[in-house]
Amino acid sequence: MMRFVMGRFFHAALVVAALLILVFLIVHLTGDPAALALGTDSTHEEIVAFRHDMGFDRPLWIQFLSFARGVLLHAEFGNSLRYQEPALPIVLERLPATLELTFAAMGVALLIGVPTGLFAAILRGTWRDALLRIIALLGQSAPVFWIGILLIQVFAVQLGWFPSSGRDNGWMSIALPALTLSAYSTASITRLLRASVLDTLTQDFVRTARAKGVSALVVTLRHVLRNSLLPVVTLVAMQFGTLLGGAVITESIFAWPGLGRLVVQAIYNRDIFLIQAAVFTIAVLFVAINFVMDILYMALDPRIRLR
């Protein structure tokens, strides 16, 4: 097991190194970073002075070494151009709100998607199965912004059950954003689990358990569901990245004070160092979540080993 964990950790470290290069290149792929940061209203002298102050006039490889040393040794991305403070602490200040929304959305997706997918497989061929599949298809097809606006219109404006924005009312504030963000993941989990359960039901160990007189409930929960959850674990790991990215739209709709909304504001303000810090933080989180999911995958199926 230790070999498996160390191998996955080594792969994660390689991915983080590649991310460091990509985040650095974000500033340079769009043109002159000094002109990008200052905008079209700045003079040539201001651009030249800013380029010198930020070190953008040095060779590219020297800039990368300085950037990598600052990130890896001191966790520094530079000062935010808008806030005039170190960029990473600003990102970390907004991160808890985004993680709260992401985990809430994933919790809703699992709470709804797992039993729905299981019931759809058990009720295969019935009208209830068809109805659940249609709802899941709609959940994957509907745009996030449309779902968010619809929920605000119905539950916040017309019924007045939940607030339409902000984070000041506890679970009531997170209810609509979490439902909005979880729609696609819920539908994906439902459809994948249904297909996985149908495949597991045809396996020999299931028929053997039934032939030995094991009750249908025990067979379903202990044998079928556990083995069917393996592909769902992989999907959940990928969906975390989707949720973190989708939070940009959801947080903007509901004025949720998280990292996604901060990224949108940083793009509008051309705050390149804040964008770098935010993108790298989200990417590292995604790598860390996938690392944890790999370990969980092995725990669910001990046959998995790193060769």
Provide an overview of this structure.
The protein is mainly α. The chain folds into 2 domains: 2-87, no CATH class; 97-261 and 283-300, MetI-like fold. The chain is 79% helix and 0% strand. Helix 5 (87-122) crosses helix 8 (171-200), helix 5 packs antiparallel against helix 10 and helix 9 (204-211) packs across helix 10. The longest helix has 38 residues, at 216-253. The chain is globular. The N and C termini lie close together (11 Å). The model has no long low-confidence stretch (mean pLDDT 77).
In short:
The chain is mainly alpha-helical and 307 residues long.
Structural class: mainly alpha
What helical percentage do the residues reach? over 70%
CATH level-four homologous superfamily name of the largest domain: MetI-like
Largest sheet: none
Query: What low-confidence regions span 5 or more consecutive residues with pLDDT below 50?
Result: none
What's the layout of helices and strands?
Elements: H1 2-29, H2 33-38, H3 44-54, H4 60-74, H5 87-122, H6 127-141, H7 144-158, H8 171-200, H9 204-211, H10 216-253, H11 259-268, H12 272-300
Helix pairs in contact: 1-12, 5-6, 5-8, 5-10, 5-12, 6-8, 7-8, 7-10, 8-10, 9-10, 10-11, 10-12, 11-12
Labels describing this entry:
MetI-like fold, mainly alpha, 307 residues, 0% strand, single chain, 12 helices
